[in-house]
Amino acid sequence: MPFRKNNKIGAKKFLSKPLDAQPICFKGYQGQKEQLKAVPNWQERVRAFIDELIQESTQNGKA
After folding, report:
1. Using an 8 Å Cβ cutoff, are 24 and 50 in contact?
2. According to the model, what pLDDT value does residue 19 have?
3. Residue 28: which of 41, 17, 42 has the closest Cα?
4. Is this model's pTM higher than 0.85 or not?
């Protein structure tokens, strides 16, 4: 049964920060895409890693 438009009970994302409208895209090595999909909660973990990477870069004065 599909949801009606403007349904107040529909699926909602519970994220700590809002997502950007533009995706971050990069090419990985062969086979990484399939392996990554098998990792639980991989998208949130990648977002956290990117935050750490940016923080390291700014602490080292490279940003």
Report:
1. yes
2. 87
3. 42
4. no
